[in-house]
Specification:
186 residues, mainly alpha, Histone, subunit A, elongated, Histone_H2B, Core Histone H2A/H2B/H3 domain-containing protein, H2A/H2B/H3, DNA binding
Length: 186
């Protein structure tokens, strides 16, 4: 196994590369010198096989393209993160809860009282349950009347069927007042 020193043209004297060659491997030598002296040898890279389309298209520099791709990827990642944050905020906002209204109503009745977290969750589940019951009863009334729209009349009838006593009277009075306020603002 023979070792030979090969230097590439255009390189300094210190940039010599040690390559190990066996007897079977051909060595690149200059046309003029056939001996194994340490002369500069021109080494060419093999040409790439290109199609006709690649030959016709102008060559593009690869470095700016990589930079553009890299910056484009960064922008896409930032947009994805912004969209994910926006969606997360919307999901947090979409929690169907009536919890924000309970302290407001309580302050109107009793200024110095507060509600615990557990009592707020119990009231919230109660209001949601009543809402579902009223909506279901109003839906049944609409189906019986062969109509397609739930009006205030169906809601009022559903409240009369579901609630009893003073609670029914207060709910009907408050609902009627809310409808009068809504119509007057139109």
């Amino acid at each position: 196994m023979a070792t030979s020193s090969v230097s590439v043209t255009g390189a300094s004297d210190m940039d010599t590369v040690q390559e190990s060659t066996s007897a079977e491997e051909p060595t690149a030598v200059d046309d003029q010198a056939s001996d194994t002296s340490e002369e500069a040898v021109k080494v060419r890279k093999p040409k790439k096989a290109t199609s006709k389309k690649e030959k016709q298209q102008p060559k593009k520099s690869k470095k700016p393209e990589k930079r553009c791709r890299r910056s484009l990827r960064l922008l896409q990642r930032q947009r994805m993160k912004e969209n994910e944050l926006r969606v997360a905020r919307l999901i947090r906002r979409r929690r169907n809860s009536f919890a924000i209204y309970f302290p407001k109503v309580l302050r109107l009745v009793h200024v110095d009282l507060t509600l615990s977290q557990r009592s707020v969750s119990i009231l919230d589940s109660f209001v949601k349950d009543m809402f579902e019951r009223i909506a279901m009863e109003a839906s049944n009334l609409v189906r019986q009347n062969k109509s397609t729209t739930i009006n205030s009349r169906e809601i009022q009838t559903a409240v009369r069927l579901l609630l009893t006593g003073e609670m029914r009277e207060r709910a009907i009075a408050e609902g009627t007042m809310a409808m009068v306020r809504y119509i007057s603002t139109k």
